[in-house]
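User: We ran a pulldown and think these components assemble together. Before we commit to crystallization trials, I'd like a predicted model of the whole complex to look at. Sequences follow.
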Amino acid sequence: MLNDYSKEDKVLLAVDCIIFGFDGEDLKILLIKRDFEPEKGKWSLIGGFLKKEENLDKAAIRILNHLTGLDNIYMEQLYTFSKVDRDPAERTISTAYYALIDIESHNNEFTNVETSKWFSLKNAPDLIFDHNRMVERAVSRLKYRTKTKPIGFELLPEKFTMLQLQNLYESILNEKLDKRNFTSKINALDILIKLKEKDMGSSKKGSYLYTFDAEKYNKKLKEGFVFKI
Amino acid sequence: MLNDYSKEDKVLLAVDCIIFGFDGEDLKILLIKRDFEPEKGKWSLIGGFLKKEENLDKAAIRILNHLTGLDNIYMEQLYTFSKVDRDPAERTISTAYYALIDIESHNNEFTNVETSKWFSLKNAPDLIFDHNRMVERAVSRLKYRTKTKPIGFELLPEKFTMLQLQNLYESILNEKLDKRNFTSKINALDILIKLKEKDMGSSKKGSYLYTFDAEKYNKKLKEGFVFKI
DNA sequence: ATTTAAAAGTGTAAAAGAAACACTTATAGA
DNA sequence: TCTATAAGTGTTTCTTTTACACTTTTAAAT
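Assistant: Here's a predicted model for the assembly, 458 residues in total across the polymer chains.
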């Protein structure tokens, strides 16, 4: 006897992406203005539908790439939202993903969307459907992840100053941190490379640039190292 | 212009449940022997398909209740698994949920499944499809949750001893804990009620029984209390 | 009645980690 | 050469976590 799948309901499975960016000041999300009904003209996350021949991770990458031109971006599945009437047009389920991108280095890549815009989390507009709840959940996941995985670097340029890193953590965790304690904590992790090069833009003295040493981090991971901010 | 949903692929959306139980010794999961193809005769999580008129939480509750008779059970959505060929019979996506139940008090309720069985996590059999990976993920989520939310009590009888609680935490976290440190940590949380009653089964002296004080916990939550083991 | 055995119950000291805190240095630009 | 500005740097205090062992209670055996 074969289980009879044919009687079961099939549904549309959407993928929506919360795209986080950081401009050195504020944590931001990328939103688009919908140019189709329902909810035309309102702000929304970018999204699309899963195709039969791809898995959700692939769909998320495709959708992000198609709408923004972005490639090779950190993404993580967040949660699947399934309220019956979440999309008034049709019964859809949506699996939310969040993505972390460095705004600076991808500044010119938003080729396919005229109507996309970065918003500071604090003054982001109201979103369609259940997208506000998706963002909420993404923010709290991001807080947790940045404390336990070195993913903050995904939001920064390749080279960054200690102050930029601290500002990033302060924005994500939504709290002020002590400069000396932060610096020594980060240094104690021993997963950054301090460059000879300085960023002279922010002060007269200039401040040293760092990069994340992914190789060293992975090596330490294997030896039982636990990342913890 | 309305977005044309009709061109998009629809898929079967399954729900699979990792059911955790605790017998005072080991952390266990409830599995069933499949009596239909594919993979007939192999062990599997319980599962079913989402119906059009319900959301995933409801589906998970329905599926758990239908196959086990269990009701009013702690459940949480875990992750959505979507590998293209995860089910060889047909393209299905599966959202996994995990449930926590107290084995003792629900001992006689497994009415609808002749072939269900509790397995210690350590010597659970190999499972069909991607169910092993689901269990892995559920275990790690459970570890995290028990450290940060008072959900361990869901796995214990209404009244329990301090030692039972410690054994539970040791099983979930997979590490030995110090009795004195554990007791004072739990007492410091101040969310248990110590009963006059003793459990005389485990020793000559007998050990005091406790219950979780959900009301007090919720009141403390509102005042900013953070649960942390 | 007394002894025995077995788990329950309890506190303190040492170590580690987190938090608070302020002055010196380097350098561009005036 | 003076000035203004952010960068860079250690120590002390407090809090939290860990390590550790003896006494108490009582049922069961003698």
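The domain at 8-148 of chain A is CATH 3.90.79.10 (Nucleoside Triphosphate Pyrophosphohydrolase). That may be worth checking against your pulldown data before setting up trials.

User: Thanks, that helps.
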